[in-house]
Amino acid sequence: MKKLFVTLILPAVLLLGRAAPAQSHDPTLDEPLLDAASTGNYPVVQRLLENGAAIETTDADGQTPLLKAANTGQVHIVMLLLDKGANIEAAGNLPEIEGRTALMEAAFKGYTEIVLLLLDKGANIEAADRHGLTALFLAVAGTGNPHIVRILLGRNAYTEVKDDDDETPLIKAAGMGRAPLVKVLLEQQHIDLEAKDKHDNTALLAAAAGGYAEIVKLLIDKGADVNPQNDQGQTALDIATDQEFADIVTMLKEHGAKAKPVKPAPADAAPQPATPKEGDDPKPN
């Protein structure tokens, strides 16, 4: 039914030619506008706006035409909508991505041109979704486009933002094995190498746990502490040893890493009787 509705409306709109100025709102054009923005149909979006479609109309998930266009990589539609006055900070309401703006969506999906366009138009680089995630964090956690990460850092994006697990962008990139992103993040003078997530894992611990030797080396070369412990008392060397990541074990030892110290038995502890071996006669009392 939806396709039939759109099929009937769009040809009629395109035949209208130039619309009269100050066209009143026509709610029947709102749904076609959302569809055209999402699919990148520039002439249709233009005509719908001229003939009364609401530029801030939303679908059931709170997605505006601008959000639809940014989410699907339609850079020319994004430009048109911004030129027509679309709210650059509009955000959807889907539970998992509630609060994400067009900039966040474009950063997450890896659309470099749209990210640049939105930033140049004044998008808030530190806007956060319901999980506290900013465009920088989403750029790292999404498609992992290093060009976008570099662009955001070049615009002074805050590097120590944390998600629900207290992971920073650096911890997230290290734990995902994204060496190109780690390299870009480590270029920042004040990046916190020793930030910890809710389990006290640093970026080095996260990289060691994933077996990412290149990232472990990058962090060590930058000066990361090789002996932090997580909330289980494990060091990076403990983790790499348990996982049999021989190259990481060697690298850590070369830089002075230590295993978790084994607690000695108390000096005044009573000696424990030996467990009788099978076949031994029990000693008489």
CATH topology of the domain at 1-84: Serine Threonine Protein Phosphatase 5, Tetratricopeptide repeat
Give the second-level CATH assignment, the architecture of the domain at 1-84. Answer: Alpha Horseshoe
**Shape category:** elongated
List the secondary-structure elements in sequence, H or E: HHHHHHHHHHHHHHH
Radius of gyration: 28 Å
Residue share in β-strands: under 5%
Distance between the termini: 92 Å
Question: What level of helicity do the residues show?
Answer: 40-55%
Low-confidence stretches: 1-9, 12-20, 275-285
Largest sheet: none
Helix/strand-derived category reads mainly alpha
The CATH class of the domain at 1-84, by name, is: Mainly Alpha
Mean pLDDT: 89
Number of helices: 15
Instruction: Please name the fourth-level CATH homologous superfamily of the domain at 1-84.
Output: Ankyrin repeat-containing domain
- Number of strand elements: 0
